[in-house]
């Protein structure tokens, strides 16, 4: 089980193990905002609920410019696993401007794509094909993208991830 760590300003910082979260709480470096009562942790001195979301007591300065690295999984997640051309389920990614023509591996040049559209498009641009993109590809800016592990998070995390966004 994982725990979402929030900065003192309620912005998501990290996802840590519940053991690390308990240590932070016991050392009074964090307070528990939400816990899982169904799966308690037992110790010699008693029973503790597993923390699901904790809030740091002191503010941790985050350097600006934490860019989200481009990845295949990230592009598919950004586009909701839907093809940028036809809207069907996407399993691959496509370069809008092909790499052979100088297209970069960037958030603005990559879209999720179904296998059929990817094969038909080949080494051409959407304009040459007469196609239009269903969305404008851009880098994700939501705070949940900066924190690794949030995409496989728990339902009670959504309330805290929406605050900073």
Automatic annotation (TrEMBL):
The keyword Zinc does not apply. GO terms for molecular function: endonuclease activity. It comes from the Bacteria. Gene3D superfamilies: 1.10.30.50. InterPro entries: HNH_5 (IPR029471), HNH_nuc (IPR003615), NA-targeting_endonuclease (IPR052892). Residues 70-119 form the HNH nuclease domain. CDD domains: HNHc. This is 5-methylcytosine-specific restriction endonuclease McrA. The lineage of its organism: Bacteria, Bacillati, Actinomycetota, Actinomycetes, Micrococcales.
């Amino acid at each position: 089980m994982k725990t979402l760590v929030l900065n003192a300003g309620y912005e998501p910082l990290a996802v840590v193990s519940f053991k690390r979260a308990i240590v932070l709480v016991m050392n009074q470096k964090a307070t528990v905002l939400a816990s899982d009562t169904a799966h308690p942790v037992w110790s010699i001195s008693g029973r503790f609920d597993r923390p699901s979301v904790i809030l740091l007591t002191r503010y941790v300065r985050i350097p600006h410019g934490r860019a989200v690295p481009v990845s295949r999984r990230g592009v598919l997640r950004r586009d909701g696993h839907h093809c940028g051309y036809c809207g069907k389920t996407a399993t691959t990614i496509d370069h809008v401007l092909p790499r052979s023509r100088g297209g970069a591996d960037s958030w603005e040049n990559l879209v999720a794509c179904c296998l059929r559209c990817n094969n038909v498009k080949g080494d051409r641009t959407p304009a040459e094909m007469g196609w239009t993109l269903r969305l404008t590809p851009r880098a994700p800016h939501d705070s949940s993208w900066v924190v690794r592990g949030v995409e496989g998070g728990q339902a009670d995390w959504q309330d805290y991830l929406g605050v900073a966004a």
